[in-house]
Amino acid sequence: TGYITYDPGFVNTGSTSSAITYIDGDAGILRYRGYPIEQLAENSSFLEVSYLLIYGELPTQEQLEDFTQKINRHTLLHEDLKRFFDGFPRDAHPMPVLSSAVSALSTFYQDSLNPFDEPNVELSTVRLLAKVPTLAAYAYKKSVGQPFLYPDNSLGLVENFLRMTFGLPAEPYEVDPDIAKALDLLFILHADHEQNCSTSTVRLVGSSEANLFASISAGIMALFGPLHGGANSAVLEMLQGIKADGGDVAQFVNRVKNKEQGVRLMGFGHRVYKNYDPRAKIIKTTADQILNKLGVNDHLLDIAKTLEETALSDDYFVERKLYPNVDFYTGLIYRALGFPTKFFTVLFALGRLPGWIAHWREMIQDPATKIGRPRQIYTGEKQRDYLAISER
Ligand code: CMC
């Protein structure tokens, strides 16, 4: 008798209050703990932003040093965990490999199983921030058949990750500071985005009082999909497809507008931004700068720019308020830095990690938290009687 409604995709459902990230989608505003993303991108570092998201304030010099030191102490993986990688096929996608490895951390650190034990939550936080870059680098090494490198804790987090990914035991590896800086910036821009699909997944899994590793492992899998983090790989594949078809951008845009099955302008549109995504603005400039610096002349960048111009002046996209999102230009940068397309979404996961951790911790500490348990509107059969198999 009552009025029932539901909200598929949670377009208009608030699941929680949160003090971490503010977005005004119409104005194109993004702030972490009140700080505009533009200021953090210009002045901060990924580790500092991680601290800010997790603990709520920018660290003092001493706090940052202490935090960095703690993370450096935990970059090594248990030798048995390394053997985990042997079980996967060589051409395995690195996202499920990463998710499985993060899930496996619960078995190596069983002190993590109680989500209400503060010192252990702190330890799990540090372990994740320290070990996920190592796990990600090993997922890469596995895919190219090269030996794993131990972390070098004299290096910063991003430098260490680059060395473990691209370095070889027999050769010294010099980290290019431009590359490290570009990656650090991209990690800052991905670090949090309030109640997106993967973060809501982390919260939902965590709401059953599952531990931090389990919740983040689920978040990594939610990020995998092409409508979420997987869009960064999908954009590159789309650009390569356009190039292979002769570079006709207008023709591709027509296919999108005609809603051909499976054809979307990847890297465009957003549930919350109905304006230019502020992260995409910064990334577009960075793509230009880094490609110039590295002397890379990537025709795909020209195709991307033409695609953006064409879409932004087309009624279909204007009426629907579809603008480039964070994933539109990142793939071009990752490609210039030497990462294979399959690996792009792992880089998104590395960036998003502190945001997931911050949300899980906020959720666990919030007295209003209850287990997430949505309702449904049942549309199946009314009651009917069981028929013997001979009568069906
Ligand atoms: N290309 C073509 N049409 C689109 C696109 C697109 N990328 N995005 C939305 N539309 C159309 C959609 O067809 C619909 O049109 P109509 O009203 O005629 O049916 C209208 O715009 C509204 O779209 P929606 O699917 O209801 O919007 P949503 O809020 O459910 O989806 C989205 C948001 C991001 C999933 C979607 O825009 C999309 O699929 N974009 C491409 C994938 C992508 O780039 N994802 C990354 C998102 S940002 C970072 C992240 O989360 O990882």
TrEMBL record:
Similarity remark: Belongs to the citrate synthase family.
Full protein name: Citrate synthase
A GO cellular component entry from the record: cytoplasm
Catalysed conversion reaction: oxaloacetate + acetyl-CoA + H2O = citrate + CoA + H(+)
Matching SUPFAM superfamilies: Citrate synthase
Species this chain originates from: Amycolatopsis alkalitolerans
GO BP terms: tricarboxylic acid cycle
Species classification: Bacteria, Bacillati, Actinomycetota, Actinomycetes, Pseudonocardiales
One GO molecular-function entry: citrate synthase activity
CDD domains assigned to the protein according to its UniProt record, in alphabetical order: EcCS_like (cd06114)
